[in-house]
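Section 3.1: Structural characterization of target chains.
Under the original work plan, the team committed to producing a structural model for every single-chain target entering the pipeline before any wet-lab resources were allocated. The record below documents one such target. The sequence was received from the expression subgroup and is listed exactly as submitted; it comprises 703 residues.
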Amino acid sequence: MSYVRQLKQCGLPAHLKLVQVAYPDVVRVDLLDDTGKLLASSAGKGAKVLPASDYSLTHTVSPNEKLDLTFCVRVRGTLGDLAPRLPGYLDNIGAQIAAELTLRLELDEMAEELGERYEELNLVYKIKQSVDAVSDDRVAMTLSLQQLVDDCATFLNVDVAALIMPGKQLAVASGVVGDDEPDSGIIETLQNAVISSGQAIVINKPEDAKRIGIEGQLEHILICAPIPSPNPRLRGLFVIAQQKCKGREFSNSDRQLVEIQAEMARKIIKQRYDTATGLVGQGELISRFEAMLQEDKARCSLLFFHFNHLKLITDSFGYEVAGRLLSAFAEMLDDYAGEECVVARINHDEFVIAARGLDTKAAAESVLQRIEDINENRHIVPAGAEFSVNVGSVCDDSSLESVSDWLTAGEFAASLAKDNSFERLHVYSPDDSQLQKRDSDVFWLQNVKTALMNRDFRLYCQPMEALSDGPPHYEVLLRVIDDDGRVMSPAKFIEAAERYDLIPNIDQWVVEEMLSLLAQYKIADVSPESVWSVNLSGKSIGSRDFHHYLLDVLNKNSACNNRQLCFELTETAEIGEMESALKLITEVKALGAAFSLDDFGCGLSSFSYLKEIPVDYLKIDGSFVKDIDSNGVNRSMVKAMASVGKVMGLHTIAEFVETGAVRDLLKDIGVDYAQGYFVAKPVPLDGVLKDIQSAAAKTGRGR
């Protein structure tokens, strides 16, 4: 009998005691299995089977086909009238034991299944935790798509694992190939079903396949999970396959594990590709082009494309049209490029083709001609939205060592093509006189890096005057200390810092230093109503890294109340990722901080920005403000801008207030704040904070 352990858990002694309770003349009841082994006895532990002659009655019951139990009963005296009644009662006891045994067996089976399920879920949970812990920005540094597919095939012990991106004609596979590979028609049907539904599919049986349109006998069981992306060209699927002859069926846990692998693949793809255009990003370009240069530098070449007037097109026609033009241009470059080419978008308006054996002049001319064809397509390009590019061509040059050198040379050549109104293409040469300007940028770039490293920046502050009832408002400004200890405006190296993407680092330093000083002088206590405004560059606002940094800082901020902070966004700033920028602005405002639109009115996009960016302050550009006492046109412009701000519920600030007459007119117009040399000149921030703290101490505030 294979149920001895379970039987002994069924409370057999209690069942046997019931016989004695029902029939007091019964002095002992033993229960034997089908081999004659004692299972239980009413005589208690340690009892042994008696000789057969010592039992008054032996009765065998078979409550089911797998169970034979023998009751051995000893009574006081003779059976007498118990003989006809006792067997029936023993049958009932046997049925109860059988029912409990059945329940025990079912519970054991459920416990075993739950144990297995727990182990599976625990494994899924641990893997998912490890995937979730890997940020989108880090995953590509540690894992390749091929490695991911190989690891999946090994971990799940399947014949085939594959990642397929139809829009990029990309397939990465691992495992058995050849005759054992799933039919290509089946893969195509899976692509359509999974990508359109957005859900994982498990195919263990023919009816599973029929539901998605696969007819006929499958040689494999399959799991297919989608790899989503906002860009159709980057959508794909992760599939595993196992031959049916191996007798395996994929479980729900297998499906979850494949979905987790698909999520990891999504993170890798997101990091390596630009989701707006479907092209690879700068990091992937650098990795691939480095390999090209190491393998055959003499045959390498590079085309650098600068997409002209992207901001103007966006402001005039909206983000949808601008996105459509970028996508059309990117798709054209991708389709044109050959197998030995890498096409990348490295900035919001900069594209690169890095290649081996490419006739760059012919390629550039072909691209320029194709742009003309795109511009004639009114389904893509509305009238007036025609676009152009400038192209920098770079071929092998002994002075170019790193990928960074090649990209800098390409960008430089493209900028020269832009300066030449008659040519859209410029071939890089190290002898170009304009290299001096680039070298000047590099000089200032080194100064910026040194200042960041040595903390040679200083924060200044320019107080504003409230022209109506309003809290004290200050703008925090950046200054640089040169080698002689003199204070300089950062204007001389801002252009270089923006060109080489160091502006977010500078903005980060400014935010950190400002909060440090506000905390040092306990501004949250001594001047809780004051507002401190600081400029952020468009590149910082559109940067994902800066996005994460700023939200983290505000969530942990103890220097002041977040509502005391205001971030200024210059209207003329180029914001690379507007969707990301709007998301950051919304999340920062949700944490209590405010936003101001600086230099309002000086660009073509003023009112477009107001509609799209949820700001709290409107800062009227000083070019309109400074002479409103003598220039009627500018005075009318300022009135109009102030009226727009009032209608939209925004606070207005006027810059460049240099005379009392201008200040008085602004007050009459209804502007809320005046800022300029008449009100106050910029002074060191720590001095202003010290004065505020001292004034508060005299009144006993902030103690």
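Residues 136-272 form a domain with the Beta-Lactamase fold (CATH 3.30.450.40).
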